[in-house]
Amino acid sequence: MMNQKIRWGILATGGIAHVFAADLKLLENAELVAVGSRSPENAEKFANDFDIPLRFGSYEELAACSEVDAVYIATPHPFHKENAILCLNAGKAVLCEKPFAMNAIEAREMIAAARANNVFLMEAMWVRFTPLFQKVKSWLKDELIGDVRYLQSDFGFRSDKGFESRVFNPNLGGGALLDVGVYPISFASYVFDRQPATIKTSGYFGKSGVDEQGSFIFEYDSNKTASIFSANTLETKRESIIFGTNGFIHIYGPWNQLRHACITIGDKEIIEEFPLLGRGYTYQAIEVMDCLAKGKTESDILTLDETLTIMETMDSIRAQWNFKYPME
Length: 328
Ligand SMILES: NC(=O)c1ccc[n+]([C@@H]2O[C@H](COP(=O)([O-])OP(=O)(O)OC[C@H]3O[C@@H](n4cnc5c(N)ncnc54)[C@H](OP(=O)(O)O)[C@@H]3O)[C@@H](O)[C@H]2O)c1
Known about the structure:
Elements: E1 6-11, H1 15-24, E2 30-36, H2 40-50, E3 54-56, H3 59-64, E4 70-73, H4 80-89, E5 93-97, H5 104-117, E6 121-124, H6 131-141, E7 148-156, H7 176-192, E8 198-205, E9 211-221, E10 224-231, E11 240-244, E12 247-251, E13 260-265, E14 268-273, H8 282-293, H9 304-321
Parallel strand pairs: 1-2, 1-4, 2-3, 4-5, 5-6, 7-10
Antiparallel strand pairs: 7-11, 8-9, 9-10, 11-12, 12-13, 13-14
Helix pairs in contact: 4-5, 5-9, 7-9
This protein binds NADP nicotinamide-adenine-dinucleotide phosphate.
The site of NADP nicotinamide-adenine-dinucleotide phosphate has 22 residues, from helix 1.
């Protein structure tokens, strides 16, 4: 596929599918050729909005389409496994929305399908691929702030959607942990390069039966810890601060407008701006296309093993809460 355009299909036509489609249109080597929806009308409308030639009234037809190289999966999380495996078994490269799956059991099945078919698979943890996150990683590798000891990271938003929406409905994977807690938890994995040895949690459950708030203390070593918060009923600052023995790095939120970070070493403060290409979902698509051009079946920036261990961390939080979804 070297130097070739990658032909993309989008599976589902909801909120984030619209954002990703618009970003994909900004990339020269990406061609948005197809969309699949449960409803022919939604497929038609989405295709017309984004000038997409092929539109299908089922996900199966999209997966079977020989003119598609890579599929972006944008259904609610309980359907990620089924939708991803459908596409992987059809030989398509897959970029699957976060959270990758409902739990680690599902994630393992998806990874096994990718490996059995020898095709590309990656979690769409889009922030990981942005220039800001890449720069933060290089600051950490160069030990600019010394030995990293503590991370503080939160993602809380106040949803005005009803209990039937995917934000609150347990049948659609509702709950703050899987929806937004995954961002700071994935970031902790990025910063410490491993999962915590112990986790202390507290969770608050709302009327629909899903977690509306969660606080987490991650301990890696006795002097390496993270404090994480997620919520879907209140706004938080959506910031991350990494504290090291020589200084700290402050990433200003919210997560969906990552544009600048500040590194403070002693009394020296450097603020770096990172303008985003589009809404920033472009970088994960670029990573997929770079990997495909190189014949790789997974990304080094976010490996499938890391995605799996992040799912395991979220499983162990839910086990402490004794919280299972109806489909589990
Ligand atoms: N990366 C990010 O920044 C970001 C932001 C928001 C959401 N997400 C993730 O993306 C996924 C989708 O979120 P969203 O906000 O786009 O959701 P949404 O607006 O509700 O759209 C989901 C789409 O999935 C399809 N779908 C299939 N089965 C469904 C069912 N039983 N109920 C409802 N929809 C169903 C529908 O498309 P068709 O009718 O066309 O089949 C629907 O439009 C979630 O996993 C979420 O965590 C990521």
